[in-house]
Amino acid sequence: MKNKLHSIITRQEYTRSYDIRYVSEIQHLGLGKFRVLKDTDSYILRNKINSQFKTWDDQWERQETKRIKGLKRAKNKAVANEETLEAQKTLEDLDNILFHTLEIDDTIDWSTLKDKSKFQELNPRKYIDSELNNIPPPTKEKDAIKPEEPNPNMFKPELSLIDKIISSKKRKKTEAAEKAYKEALDKWKSECKQVDIQNQKKDEKLQRETQWYNAEVEAINSKYDKLEEKWKKCEKEFYIEQKEANIKVEKLKQIYLNKDEDAVLHYCEMVLNNSIYPEYFPKDFELEYNSENGIIVIEYILPTLNDMPTLKEVKYIATKDELKECHISESQKRKIYDEVIYKIALRTTHELFEADVVNALNSVVFNGWVNSINKATGKPVNNCIVSLKADKEEFEDIDLSQIDPKACFKNLKGIGSSKLNALVAIQPIIQIEKSDNRFTDSYDVATNVEGENLASIPWEDFEHLIRELFQKEFSGNGGEVKVTQASRDGGVDAVAFDPDPIRGGKIVIQAKRYTNTVGVSAVRDLYGTVLNEGATKGILVTTSDYGPDAYTFAQNKPLTLMNGANLLYLLEKHGHKSRIDIKEAKKILKENNNE
Predict the structure, then answer these.
(1) What is the pTM of this model?
(2) Which residues are registered as beta bridge partners of 262?
(3) First to last CA, the chain
(4) Is there a contact between 491 and 462 (Cβ–Cβ < 8 Å)?
(5) Are the beta carbons of 444 and 576 closer than 8 angstroms?
(6) Nearest-angstrom CA–CA distance, 417 and 386
(7) Is 286 helix (H, G, I), strand (E, B) or coil?
(8) Measured between alpha carbons, how far is 116 from 112 in angstroms, rounded to an integer?
(9) pLDDT in tens, 71-107
(10) Helix (H), strand (E) at residue 214
(11) Would you say 313 and 323 are in contact if contact means Cβ atoms under 8 Å apart?
């Protein structure tokens, strides 16, 4: 049965590799919520849609229940106690967001993804008897009974002695008796004939009714034969589709066990979709997985400060016969918010590592984003307020049941302001390369690379672009960037001079126009250059990405690793837009024998 609160608009689009991708725009009309879901597999997309609608329907049901309850509730002490317990439970659940996941095995149970349901539609032939009973079968009226045939003995004359002596009297009586018998016999025959006519009419009526009845029964049987045939076809199709869907699940399981990149991505998405959060959390995210370095990046939409529950108690004021709500203070609300954000980052990381049974993940990068309103401009903004990169071995050595979330986050070198509730924007450690950041209509500067794939442009152009980009980055503070060396492998060495007395100094910049993962050796080389040059910091820029060893080596050192996504981010910050397509670049450079 179609849910009137659900709206689904589905279309198809092509990916960069020209594969078909199914796109569904879904909306819950009751909640006013909207989301766009995508997948290259229509069955998996349907599961995503069903999962999202179930979440929304549960929210809608609770909201409606609460609304109806609010209309009907009596303002008395019992209600106050009940709402106080509910408020305390809400705050307690918020406090236990991290502990909740520690009690759960986040590994996907593949068997639960398989459809084991039975075909629910009943065989329509089940209802044939009720319809046949509406047509009572014809019944023959009772035949009229023929009268009893006259008994000739009843008509024998009674002869007296005189009648026997006088023959004329005997004859007269005998003839009268015979006449009476004949008349009775004729009347009997006439009556029998009328009875036969009556019974014949009843037989004819029964025959007509029987023919009509048989025709109706045949029509009903024919109708139900067709309905049953259609039902059997639907049942067969149901089990065929079910079997195919279960085969897809099994195939997905097998390719996941083989660490297929897309399968790992789907698996991680299922893990996070299974994670239960309070209904007022957005629970929306995007994932990107790099099989070469085993790094998965999560762009996670976080709740806002206004989403946090504040009710702690409901008091019943007997003198006024009314309920009074008591809320936590603003400072408590902000403290809870900060703790929740740290817990979400650690919980998400834990869930992915715990569920990673094939060791496909070396590192998890969590970027937490908040949609809010800029109080200075009144316009909506989307800021990344926390960013964390955690390596599996280090993270799994942590006892999350004993830690302080903020201290643990900072110990893992997570980035975020001291007060997360201030929603101060930070630059993510590693960011998903979103397709809409890769294309542009125009450039303000550096028009020679407008719309170009940065991973395949000539190394001279790349050298000019990097110098120009960092010149803009440092010039606002009086800094200067000078190119010192370039090489035909697409790299460029430059030195930036930042006059800031606290964070400034000499900064070594190296660029790698690479189409392959940058290994730890390049990072070691940069660190050696920083030490040899007496620089305060080193920056390594690449069009590709880094291996987990490279990120690990850079931790706790004055080094910044910028991958392709970070480069595009910085370009856009200074009014430029471009794109990076590694597959395309490899093909072009191979054709040009330039790699």
Answers:
(1) 0.56
(2) none
(3) 58
(4) no
(5) yes
(6) 8
(7) strand
(8) 9
(9) 555 556 788 888 889 989 999 999 999 998 898 899 9
(10) helix 167-257
(11) no
